[in-house]
Design goal:
This protein has 745 residues and is an alpha/beta fold. The protein is 31% helix and 23% strand. The strands form seven sheets. It has a seven-stranded parallel sheet, with helices on both faces. Strands 16-26-25-17-24-23 form a six-stranded parallel sheet, sandwiched between helices. It binds adenosine-5'-diphosphate and zinc ion (2 copies).
């Protein structure tokens, strides 16, 4: 190959550095350039203020706004090769779309060890093998060294070679290996140490299931175009076999030499899910979950970037996994709230998946039983292909919701007599019951019956939750804890009583009502130990009658074949909330919970307790299901000019001093309104107003909402707003952030 002419050495490197400042910083190259010269995407160590930080070269240029002599040189480069192209593209896109500083975006999107300056070159391990000479050697040569002879025999039995660690674990020594190597009988290779090694031969370890008609049609539709951007909404009721469609799609993509990236909600990446993928494929399945060490995470990243990992499964942040040969991106439960990061870099992994699939020109599958209104609307408009699975793989259709009127009925642990009776009948029939209550702790708060005092958090506009296991008052917003008082702090009365029910109280009540069956409570408190949840679920899957009491941890993803009755303690939380998405989210949650019932041999029942059984939305959901409600909600959103028919951004401001946040918010809004008027941009600017929970963790929260019909105009306004804030000296005392496409207001 002819030598391509080397580009001239740049005089200036423009480097993205992890700081909140929305700009690049110029440096001079250091004395020794990397072997292939300076290129964008190289990680460099640079002096920044008084610190040393890891930055990424974004541009190599000849000039700077500053005199060259005043620029500091970079301290050195960290990798000979730039970071992966597709990853750099995604980070730039993310920074631009979410109006987040590029330096911090790159920093957040790389594995911790890379942030800290570790080399990307994969960690290697020694692999020892017998040489041809070693295989042919007769025993005579090693007569005087019997251990070496044994070692050689062992290696000869493993033609693929053995890792040094495995050899040492057999009681052999390094000296013995070296002695054999000196005689030319064995040799050592360095191979990358990663979770994934390429598979050889057949891809599948177990045969795929024969698909039903709808599954086959959906798969065929996706197959039609594996070589272009081809977004599909796989809209299938719970238990309709979406996962089987993913499995067979991944199979097809990997057979063609591509890589598959599957995103699942935080709650969805269970050992059970992973096991299902690992059972199916002989090829390695790399899982990116919170249990990984930093080293394992880097290895997985590297395995994906190099193409050695054909299948990558992970939660939200896995969208930032580089892929050498991207073949498909799948987002399971695409409506799930955990795909949106709610602090710092506030990205939505599903939306980035769409952008990424478009960039790579590959198919994209968004799967859900209860699609977000955003995705549903795009499917209705024809932007996404709308694929439906209406039948369950098992015999029984998902159960309809039966509404139970809570008004005027006595409650025990939150449950009214008809619900308790149904629980008793189900247990007597030998089945299992799931009681869903979206409140952990014993009771939502503690109240004084003499004077009406309620236990409130000092730092938040919120009540403290009463816990009994262990006993305390805890704020679920800031995690402050207090001992339970013996007497009312206001009036001294000892008549303090729990108000309402949480999981602990419902568990206690059910254990008293049904002493013969096991009651398992599943919430964040009961599953702090890593394997606690799996241990309980394994026991539950054995099938003996039992009661499960849990929060939304239980609502999603889990296949509980013996549950035939689901009771929702209170469905009202989302009905009259101020957030315009509350109803959508609570309908999705109800439908997911209901989907736990009757997934196997027996049909299911779902009882929903409510104070508003005549609420039209709830009735529509109960009678006609999520799809009908979603249609209605879309019409309401259109009429109210809300997403997905309009685009929103939120400026969030917070400060320990209310006045500081209010003043800055007011000035920023005024400046923005002037600017919008000058440019005649159709962007509405609403507020600033106090956030729904104004005081949180001792800080005041304020927000300014921007709304526009055109996304480009919204982005222009946001760019102007952040530039104004960055230049404002007041803004140093107030924490502010932009939230593009906010999921909660
Ligand atoms: P979803 O992801 O839509 O909730 P799953 O893929 O988990 O549904 O499927 C639900 C159950 O149905 C699983 O136990 C699965 O093994 C089974 N299943 C899925 N597809 C088929 C099929 N084509 N034939 C038989 N069983 C199937
Ligand atoms: Zn009192
Ligand atoms: Zn608090």
């Amino acid at each position: 190959m002819p030598d391509s002419p080397r580009p001239p050495q740049p005089r200036v490197l423009r480097v993205a550095v992890p700081t909140p400042l929305r700009r690049l910083f110029d440096y001079r190259p250091c004395q020794t350039p990397p072997p292939d010269g300076w290129r964008p995407g190289l990680r460099v160590q640079v002096p920044f203020g008084r610190r040393q930080v890891v930055g990424v070269v974004v541009d190599c240029v000849q000039d700077s706004d500053l005199p060259l002599a005043r620029l500091k040189p970079v301290d050195g480069w960290l990798d000979a090769d730039p970071l992966p192209d597709d990853w750099l593209w995604l980070c730039r896109f993310t920074a631009r779309y979410y109006q987040h500083p590029l330096g911090d975006t790159l920093h957040q999107a790389m594995p911790v060890l890379l942030r800290q300056g570790r080399a990307l070159a994969s960690r290697m391990r020694e692999q020892w093998q017998a040489t041809a000479q070693g295989l042919a050697a007769d025993d005579a040569r090693l007569r005087r060294a019997p251990r070496q002879a044994e070692l050689l025999t062992m290696l000869a039995q493993h033609p693929q070679g053995l890792a040094a660690q495995a050899i040492l674990a057999q009681g052999f020594s390094r000296d013995q290996l070296k002695a054999l190597a000196a005689k030319g009988l064995v040799a050592c290779r360095e191979i990358p140490l990663t979770a994934a090694t390429p598979h050889a031969g057949r891809l599948l370890a177990e045969p795929p299931l024969p698909l039903n008609g709808e599954q086959a049609a959906a798969l065929a539709a996706i197959h039609q175009r594996l070589d272009g951007f081809h977004p599909c909404l796989l809209h299938g009721v719970t238990g309709s076999g979406k996962t089987e469609v993913y499995l067979q799609l991944i199979e097809a993509v990997v057979e063609r030499g591509g890589q598959a990236l599957l995103l699942v909600p935080e709650i969805g990446l269970t050992p059970q899910t992973l096991a299902r993928f690992r059972r199916r494929f002989r090829a390695p399945v790399v899982a990116l979950h919170s249990g990984l060490t930093d080293h394992e995470r880097l290895d997985a990243w590297e395995a994906a970037a190099s193409g050695r990992a054909p299948i990558v499964i992970g939660t939200r942040s896995a969208i930032f996994t580089p892929l050498a040969r991207p073949g498909v991106i799948i987002v399971d439960e695409e409506h799930d709230g955990s795909f949106k990061q709610q602090e710092g870099l506030r990205y939505h992994a599903r939306d980035l998946a769409v952008a990424r699939a478009h960039r790579h020109a590959i198919p994209l599958v968004l799967g859900s039983a209860t699609p977000s209104l955003e995705s549903l609307q795009r499917a209705r408009q024809g932007d996404y292909r709308h694929l439906r699975l209406t039948r369950r793989a098992s015999r029984h259709a998902p159960a309809r919701l039966e509404l139970l009127d809570l008004r005027g009925r006595p409650r025990q642990g939150g449950l009214i007599p008809p619900a308790i009776a149904a629980i008793g009948e189900t247990l007597a029939a030998g089945h299992q019951v799931l009681v869903f209550i979206n409140r952990r702790g014993f009771a939502p708060t503690l109240a004084c019956h003499a004077c009406g005092w309620l236990a409130e958090c000092e730092a938040c506009d919120a009540r403290m939750t009463l816990h009994r296991q262990p006993p305390m008052l805890a704020c679920h917003h800031c995690d402050k804890r207090r001992p339970i008082p013996d007497a009312c702090p206001e009036c001294g009365s000892a008549d303090l009583r729990p108000l309402g029910s949480g999981t602990e109280r419902t568990e206690e009540t059910l254990a008293a009502l049904f002493p013969k069956v096991a009651v398992h409570r599943i919430d964040r408190d009961s599953t702090r130990r890593r394997d606690a949840l799996e241990a309980v679920l394994t026991q539950v899957r054995r099938g003996e009658p039992c009661l499960l009491v849990g929060t939304q941890m239980l609502a999603k993803g889990h296949h509980l074949p013996h549950v035939t009755l689901v009771v929702v303690v209170n469905a009202d939380a989302g009905l009259y909330a101020s957030d315009f998405r509350a109803l959508e989210h609570s309908a999705q949650l109800l439908e997911q919970v209901a989907g736990r019932a009757g997934r196997a041999a027996h049909p299911g029942r779902v009882l929903v307790q409510t104070l508003h059984d005549d609420d039209p939305h709830l009735q529509l959901l109960a009678r006609q299901g999520y799809d009908a409600l979603a249609e209605r909600l879309l019409e309401e959103r259109r009429a109210a000019r809300l997403p997905p028919f309009r685009f929103l951004a939120l400026l969030r401001l917070e400060s320990p001093r209310e006045a500081a946040a209010t003043t800055l918010g007011g000035e920023a809004a005024a400046a923005l309104r002037r600017w919008l008027a000058e440019r005649q941009l159709a962007v509405d600017c609403l507020g600033p107003v106090p956030a729904p929970m104004e005081r949180r963790q001792g800080r005041y929260h304020l927000q300014l909402m921007l709304a526009a019909d055109r996304r480009s105009q919204l982005h222009e306004a946001c760019a102007q707003l952040s530039a104004w804030l960055e230049a404002s000296p007041e803004a140093r005392r107030v924490r502010w952030s932009l939230d593009i496409d906010p999921q909660t207001l």
